[in-house]
Design goal:
Blueprint lengths: L21 H5 L1 H5 L11 H31 L4 H24 L4 H5 L14 H10 L14 H11 L4 H13 L18 H12 L5 H32 L11 H7 L6 H5 L5
Length: about 280
C-alpha cells in the first residue's frame, strides 16, 4: 500500500507561523469576509460573488488601460501596449464566461432576494464608468449617480481631464500619417463621434499596412478589445432579460431597454466603418 504524499519530503515549507502564507499575501480573511448576505436566499451568494469578481477584473482592466495609454503617449515602442490591450480583451472574454454561471439562476431564484438589493445596481459601478471614460465613451450625465461619493465623483472628473485611450491613438495616427483632425475629435467631455478625416487616415493605414504596421496593429488591437467588450455587453443584456424580463432595474433604469441602447454605442467607430471601403 502506497504512503500518502508528504510534500515536506520534497522540501515544501509546511510552517508559516513566522512567514507570509498564501492567505496572508492575498488577504483572504478580509476578502472572504466581504460576502455579507442580506437574505437567507441560497442564490444571493452567487449574485454577490459574480459582481465582486467582475469588479476585481475591472480593477485589472483599469490598470492595463492606464499603462497602455501612458506607453502610447510616449510614442516610441507600441509593442508593450499591444500586450496590455490584448490582455484587456481576454479579461472581457473571462467576464463573458461569468455570465454563463449567473444564468443558472432562474427568475424564481432571483425573486427570493431581489428586495434585499434595495436600489443598488451595476449601473452604479464607478469602475465600469471609468473604463468607458478611458476608452472614450464620455457621457458626463452618468456622473450624477456618484455625487454621494465625492472621492469617486472626483476620480471620474479627473479622468475627463486626461485624453482617452482613443484620443492617444488618434494623436499617433495624425502624427504618423500627417492628417490633421479638427478640435471636435479631441473633445474631452463627450462621447467620441465618427469623423470622416479620422476614417480616411485609418483607411490609409489599412491600404498600406507595410508602411504603417504599428498603427495597423494598434487599430486591430482596439477592434479586438471592442469586439470582446461588445460581447460582454450583449451577454449582459441576454442574462438580464432571461432573469427579470422587461421589469425596471433595481437602480431605476428601464432594465433591458437601457442595456439594449448601450449595444448601439461604438467606441472606435471609424475602425468599424472603414471595413466597407476596403
Amino acid at each position: 500500500m502506497s504512503k500518502a504524499y508528504d510534500p515536506s519530503r520534497e522540501g515544501a515549507k509546511m510552517s508559516y507561523a513566522k512567514d507570509m502564507s498564501y492567505g496572508d499575501y492575498l488577504h483572504m480573511d478580509e476578502l472572504l469576509a466581504t460576502h455579507q448576505l442580506h437574505s437567507d436566499a441560497h442564490d444571493e451568494l452567487l449574485f454577490i460573488i459574480q459582481h465582486q469578481t467582475s469588479e476585481l477584473w475591472m480593477r485589472l482592466v483599469l490598470h492595463e488601460l492606464s499603462a497602455a495609454r501612458d506607453l502610447l503617449q510616449q510614442g516610441e515602442d507600441f509593442r508593450p501596449a499591444f500586450k496590455m490591450l490584448s490582455r484587456v480583451a481576454r479579461i472581457f472574454d473571462q467576464l463573458n464566461s461569468a455570465w454563463d454561471v449567473l444564468r443558472t439562476m432562474t427568475p424564481s431564484d432571483y425573486t427570493t432576494f431581489r428586495e434585499a438589493l434595495g436600489s443598488s445596481s451595476g449601473f452604479q459601478s464607478h469602475q465600469y464608468r471609468l473604463i468607458e471614460y478611458m476608452l472614450g465613451n464620455r457621457n458626463t450625465a452618468m456622473m450624477k449617480v456618484h455625487e454621494h461619493r465625492p472621492e469617486l465623483h472626483r476620480m471620474l472628473a479627473e479622468e475627463l481631464k486626461r485624453p482617452s485611450l482613443y484620443h492617444v491613438a488618434l494623436d499617433a495616427l495624425s502624427a504618423r500619417t500627417g492628417v490633421a483632425f479638427g478640435a471636435q475629435v479631441r473633445r474631452m467631455d463627450s462621447p467620441h463621434a465618427a469623423d470622416p478625416k479620422v476614417q480616411r487616415a485609418w483607411l490609409m493605414v489599412y491600404e498600406d499596412t507595410a508602411r504603417y504596421w504599428d498603427l495597423y496593429e494598434l487599430a486591430e488591437k482596439l477592434v479586438d478589445l471592442e469586439d470582446y467588450f461588445r460581447r460582454w455587453r450583449f451577454n449582459h443584456v441576454t442574462t438580464v432579460e432571461r432573469v427579470i424580463g422587461f421589469k425596471r432595474g433595481t437602480g431605476g433604469t428601464s432594465g433591458v431597454q437601457y442595456l439594449r441602447r448601450m449595444l448601439e454605442v461604438e467606441l472606435f467607430p471609424e475602425l468599424w466603418h472603414l471595413r466597407g471601403e476596403l
